[in-house]
Amino acid sequence: MSFCNKIIYLIASLFILFALTCEMDHGLEPMRSHIQGTISYRGEWPAPAEEVRLVGATRFPPSGIEDLIIGESIPLTGDSYDYDFYLEPGVYKLVGVAWREQNSTWAIASICGLHYTGTDSLTPGEVVLASDTSVARNVNIFVNRAQAHRVTNSKIVGSIKFEGTWPDSVLDVRVIATTKFSLFPVQLPTLLDISFSNGVPAGSDSAQYIIDAFPAHYVATAVLLFKINDSFSLNSIIALDQTPYTVAEDTTIAGPDFTITF
């Protein structure tokens, strides 16, 4: 190889190495889009806590723990904590706090505090990170530690049948059990009073619902119809059963059976 060819080969090799290094460095850039806010605490945990973490989700209601983005660990104690939650750009339907007691696992019931907008305690506040440099501020969360749910192997099961033609634009159907609900006088639940079932796909003729429930006394069970671009509200309820029952730790309870006629 001539001297000139050696120089050309060396320059080309250095150029390729530089390009690869730049590409690798770019991939290691820290995430800049994030959510900021203050978590306010009161009360004591119902059991010794292993850890507390920030959580987010791009869909609501989440189908299971796999739909949650579990973030950094945050302090177990104290009255307040100013947080930064670094996330990819996107629309987040849920931002909150989840806890895990010692020797336990994560579940949807681990969520112990949520960000709301206004006075609506049934729909989490939506948070938008439009670009990789976006910062969403004042996304504040309140946590009453004493109301945190313990995660056990407790379930509510039942059947649901559908008659008639399904409405258009339906995402799925969920069955919920709530520990707080009354029409006279009016007493509405918050999201932390509710256990959700798996989703029943639109167009089903029948299905079994399974609710991964936190141990508690439940006062009502309802069927909710979720449509595209609809938020969770009392208008989502298409059937209601107010038979009370108690779910103990690590037990499976028979919930009401429903027939839905469209």
What's the average pLDDT? 88
Task: Supply Rg.
Answer: 24 Å
Order of helices and strands: HEEEEEEEEEEEEEEEEEEEEEEE
Q: Sheet bearing the most strands, described?
A: 5 strands, antiparallel
Shape, per Cα inertia axes = globular
How many separate helices?
1
Structure description:
The protein is mainly beta and 262 residues long. The chain has 1 helix and 23 strands. The strands form 7 sheets. Strands 12, 15, 16, 19 and 20 form a 5-stranded antiparallel sheet that branches. A hairpin with a 2-residue loop joins strand 13 (182-183) and strand 14.
Index terms:
disordered N terminus; globular; 23 strands; mainly beta; 262 residues
SSE layout:
Blueprint: H1 3-27, E1 34-42, E2 49-57, E3 69-74, E4 80-86, E5 90-92, E6 94-101, E7 111-114, E8 127-129, E9 135-136, E10 141-144, E11 155-163, E12 170-178, E13 182-183, E14 186-187, E15 194-196, E16 200-201, E17 206-212, E18 216-218, E19 220-227, E20 237-241, E21 245-247, E22 252-254, E23 258-261
Parallel strand pairs: 1-9, 1-10, 11-22, 11-23
Antiparallel strand pairs: 1-4, 2-3, 2-6, 5-8, 6-7, 11-17, 12-15, 12-16, 12-19, 13-14, 18-21, 19-20
Quick structural overview:
The chain has 262 residues and is mainly beta. The protein has one helix spanning 3-27; strands spanning 34-42, 49-57, 69-74, 80-86, 90-92, 94-101, 111-114, 127-129, 135-136, 141-144, 155-163, 170-178, 182-183, 186-187, 194-196, 200-201, 206-212, 216-218, 220-227, 237-241, 245-247, 252-254, 258-261.
